[in-house]
Amino acid sequence: MPDPDRKPTTQLTGPLARLDRAREELAKAWLVRLIERASFFYIKAPTTESIAAELPVLISDVLEAAAHSDDPYAMAPEARERAEGVVELRQSGSSSAAEMTRDIGAIQGVILEALRRDADELGPARIADLAVGVAEAVGAVQAVAVETLLRRRSRELESTAGSDPLTGLFDLPHLQQELRRALALHARYGQPFSLLVLDIEGLRRINDSLGRQAGDRVLVQVALAVRRAIRAVDVPARIGGDEFGVLLPQQDAAAARALAERLAEAARGETAGADHAGIEVAIGLVSCPQHGAEVTTLLEAADQAMYAAKAGGDAVAVGHPTEPEITADSRQ
Question: Where are the domains of the chain?
């Protein structure tokens, strides 16, 4: 919490000093403007009490920056931290860069309105000089706050990019990207890998009889089962409504089949509940290079193997090899 008795690091004089002494009043006027605006509707808890304690110090930061007419952007480190902290005044995700700029710009209106009371004493030229300094200082605070907001949004996008919002697993584009990387490693070093495509049996029936929420719960439970059954280096993804894919680096078909059987059992156990028995899954399995050496070829072959498992009533089916290296044992 900022110190309400903090003294300016710059010796303010004249009208700026008077404004700094009135910073509590100015901060309240600013807060009222923010609360009245729809763009500041989602103020972060505990709302006005904590915010009201921070705004007066920000007012002083602006006044100190205005006093540095040569370089108002040369903020002290603690002032920069407070400018960055303006982003925290809102609930996460409730502000845009434009709204942030507009809200901080309200400081300028509050300060200039206070300066207008001294217009007769200061004269137009002095008022104009002070207005320029305040505008530049507010611009400096806006620049820091907006930059902080954009960095945060960038990190949020990076953290969610390539993921399925319901299950938290990766999405199809990410799986395709990892498949391309695995293919490159195979081409250069001969490293094998396998791919599983898993389909949930009867998910539509669950949606129709128990509701979409029940179906979503099954999807999340299967995703948990996938995570628990695979290794840390494997890449799980939700690639369709009721389909999942798993890339298994450095796993041939025989080793991948053992993992797939374990995954099917984990899915049955994870989804068993009071409203329905544990669901069954059908898993198609292919490996590189036996079943292809292109992303599209492998995905299609795994999908076909998955449909073969469904048709045969099996938990796992291995795709038909395009190369003779796959053994009969691995197809059994």
Answer: 14-160, 172-331
